[in-house]
Design goal:
This protein has helices spanning about 10-25, 30-45, 95-110, 125-135; strands spanning about 5, 50-55, 60-70, 75-85, 115. By secondary structure, the chain is an alpha+beta fold. The protein starts with a strand and ends in a 15-residue tail after the last helix.
Length: about 150
């Protein structure tokens, strides 16, 4: 049985291992200062939120991060699921689904109008799950990188 709990300061080292796995999966890197700031903001639970998934033996096997923002198409907020990672040896066992459900329930309780997220088009394993728990919108993502 997967247990999902809000991230706390005591989860730092296990979170860091999963965070690095997430970054490695996407062949990305962020500085140590960004990593530590991200964790501190999540634990503060102000603008960023996070949860950790643990297996029956208490091992950390997944993380999820999200935020809310105002929207022009509703008087409430939208919840953006920004990061979702499940350790490779645990994938396919329902952890990802449980983490998404945790965010969905949190967003509903917070009064958000919807939960949404992005993934890379080549992330076929995750997309198979996403197609079962959500509706694809057909939108294409664009971005403009800005300087510091």
């Amino acid at each position: 049985m997967t247990i999902i709990a809000p991230l706390t300061a005591a989860d730092h080292d296990e979170w860091l291992t999963l965070w690095h796995g997430y970054l490695e999966f996407y062949e990305a890197s962020v500085s140590r200062s960004v990593t530590e700031s991200t964790f501190a903001r999540i634990v503060a639970d102000d603008d960023l939120h996070g949860a950790i998934a643990r297996d029956d033996e208490g091992r950390a096997v997944g993380i999820v991060h999200w935020l809310t923002h105002p929207a022009t198409w509703t008087t409430s907020t939208y919840t953006y699921l920004e990061d979702l990672f499940v350790s490779p040896g645990t994938r396919g066992g329902g952890v990802g689904r449980s983490l998404i459900e945790h965010v969905r329930a949190w967003a509903e309780a917070a009064g958000s109008r919807k939960v949404y997220w992005l993934t890379h088009e080549t992330n076929t394993a995750a997309r198979a799950l996403y197609d079962r728990v959500a509706t694809g919108t057909g939108f294409v993502h664009y971005e403009i990188p800005l300087g510091r």
